[in-house]
Design a protein that fits this description.
Number of strands: 13
Oligomer: single chain
Strand content: 5-15%
Number of domains: 1
Shape: globular
CATH topology: Amidase signature (AS) enzymes
CATH superfamily: Amidase signature (AS) domain
Low-confidence stretches: 1-11, 14-19, 40-53, 581-585
Distance between the termini: 71 Å
């Protein structure tokens, strides 16, 4: 046999052509390039779709809650730095431009850097708690580290550039919990304790305006904190109250406000008015957010002996937020005294809204005792309208003690007399036309803690505390007192340092006639908010929070109306985050 036969059939010309090197590799390269190009295009489309979906998930900062912000940072949708940049842009829009709300006195030049540090901690898996990376505004009477670049002045040029020793205790607690200080909120100068001036005015800040009506009153003295929280210039804001300064801004700005028992939150590092009445608390768009903040800032502090009277362990306030808390409780209305029209001077619409609130309480399972009157209401009123020796001596001595502890005061102001002289010597800054008043400062220069002081202090505790609120609640077996959040609503509990929780109750109707004061500040007016307050005995915050939360969840008045259009900031997270990622596409 011969060798095996080999195939001799000729290959088709097309195959021969394709197998030539130059003709084989060229289409292959083109095909691969096409695939890669298509993949790049497809990935770009996918990224654009992903970014579109992500942008749709960003919370609206007008209402965004702490929980929503934490969720977004945890999912990687945005960072704390993104939040800071967005809030700062929102402040820029409406603070000194547009409606000129003047709610923020100054911003923190270190805020962005602090946010980056907290983002790095998150990336390493270290979270400080629910406030990690959350931007907060501090009222301008709450000290923050001088080296961070912010002032602490209570709205006065007299303390501009003054050097504090460090964070106030509440600021230190917030910082340790991961909060970022965006800046200082404007306030009534010296927390309203200078003289007869418009609510929301200070020499440094000018006139704060409400975001629900042009030139509307923000109330005070934590008006900047209130306006800022109301329209999302920060996640939450911190205020202080001596007599109504958290309660009233919550009322006027559609917010939840917690005025804690005096001694639940430390006042160390806070520019004082009265050690017997001053307290620090949150203003927020929801009671849950306010409660998260309270849980951080509450607690004992050896530097403030009033805090040593509270329970050793801070209660679990979040656990108290029960939507069914109104079932089976007894709520009292001290109508004889606190709802006397000559004292409250409120609009008839407030009474209508309050009656609707009482009916809602009953629907939610509460028993309403109306009236649940103070037997000594007239005596309380007469006492509170007399000269207040306790307040006068407290302000002089407490404020001078604060001034003495400052490391440096460029103006040299260390006493009440120094302060009065500074204002007189700088009238263009501190006493412009229409804002000259400083009678409170002038009248307390000789105040002292003498026998008259201690007699009035003891009398107030007995009259307002034991024989007033305590006796009335015991007599009627009440869980809380409830009232519209106006005027004497805060003044009576203030004298004994009792807590108040305030939440939205509704809005003034469209037919409301705007009323202007002598400075042209408007209140009430159509669409402006009104609130309701829950009042209890010392350290009864757990009870009050539950009751207020139950009503808040059942009504959701906060969501019924926004601020007027020009006062609503337009910048959102998508505008800031989008700039970082769009180039990838």
């Amino acid at each position: 046999m011969g060798p095996p036969l080999r195939a001799t059939a000729k290959l088709p010309d097309i195959v021969v052509y394709a197998l030539r090197p130059r003709n084989f590799w060229r289409p292959l390269v083109l095909a691969v390039a096409g695939i890669l190009a298509f993949g790049w295009l497809a990935s770009g489309v996918h990224l654009r779709l992903h970014l579109f979906w992500t942008r749709a998930q960003y919370p609206d900062l007008y209402e965004a809650s702490i929980d929503e912000l934490q969720h977004g940072m945890t999912k990687g949708l945005f960072s704390a730095e993104d939040l800071v940049r967005t809030y700062l842009a929102r402040i820029e829009e409406v603070n000194h431009q547009g409606p000129e709300l003047r709610a923020v006195l100054e911003v923190n030049p270190s805020a962005t850097e602090h946010a980056k540090q907290l983002d790095a901690e998150r990336a390493r898996g270290f979270l400080r708690g629910p406030m990690h990376g959350i931007p907060v505004l501090l009222k301008d009477n709450i000290a923050s580290r001088f080296e961070e670049g912010m002032n602490t002045t209570a709205g006065s040029y007299a303390l501009l550039g003054s050097m504090v020793r460090g964070d106030a205790t509440v600021a230190a607690k917030l910082r340790e919990a991961g909060a970022i200080f965006l800046g200082k909120a404007a306030q009534d100068e010296w927390s309203g304790a200078r003289g007869l001036l418009p609510l929301g005015w200070s020499g440094r800040g000018g006139q704060i305006s409400n975001a629900y009506y042009p030139k509307g009153s923000p109330c005070g003295s934590s008006g900047g904190s209130g306006v800022s929280a109301a329209i999302g210039l920060a996640a939450v804001a911190i205020g202080t109250e001596t007599d109504g300064s958290i309660t009233c801004p919550a009322n006027y700005n559609n917010l939840a406000g917690i005025k804690p028992t005096v001694g639940l939150t430390s006042r160390k590092g806070v520019i004082p008015v009265s050690e017997h009445q001053d307290t620090v608390g949150p203003l927020a768009r929801s009671l849950r957010d306010a409660t998260i903040v309270l849980s951080v800032i509450a607690g004992r502090d050896a530097a403030d002996n009033y805090t040593l009277a509270q329970p050793e362990k801070v209660p679990d306030y979040l656990a108290a937020l029960d939507r069914y808390a109104l079932q089976g409780v007894r709520l009292g209305v001290p109508r004889k005294f606190l709802m006397n029209a000559t004292l409250t001077e409120w609009h008839p619409s407030v009474e209508i809204a309050f009656q609707a609130a009482l009916r809602k309480f009953e629907q939610l399972g509460a028993t309403i005792i109306d009236p649940a009157d103070f037997e000594n209401a007239q005596e309380i009123f007469e006492t509170l309208t007399k000269p207040q020796f306790v307040m006068a001596a407290d302000m002089k001595l407490d404020l001078e003690a604060y001034l003495s502890e400052l490391v440096h005061v460029p103006t040299g102001v260390r006493t009440i007399e120094d302060l009065v002289a500074f204002n007189n010597n700088h009238r263009e800054l501190e006493r412009p036309p229409g804002h000259e008043a400083q009678s409170v400062l002038e009248n307390i220069s000789s105040a002292e803690r003498n026998s008259t002081y201690y007699e009035q202090l003891a009398h107030l505790r007995q009259l307002v505390g034991k024989e007033g609120i305590d006796h009335t609640m015991k007599q009627y077996k009440l869980d809380a007192l409830v009232l519209p959040a106006f005027k004497f609503t805060a003044s009576v509990p203030a004298r004994v340092g009792y807590p108040i929780v305030t939440i939205p109750m509704g809005f003034y109707p469209k037919h409301t006639k705007p009323e202007e004061d002598e400075w042209g500040i408007v209140y009430p007016a159509p669409g402006m908010p009104m609130g309701i307050s829950f009042i209890g005995r010392a350290f009864s915050e757990t009870k009050l929070l539950g009751l207020a939360y139950s009503y808040e969840q059942a009504t959701q008045f906060r969501l019924e109306r926004k601020a007027y259009a020009a006062a609503v900031p337009k910048t959102q997270l998508r505008d800031i985050v989008g700039r970082k990622w769009w180039w990838i596409c």
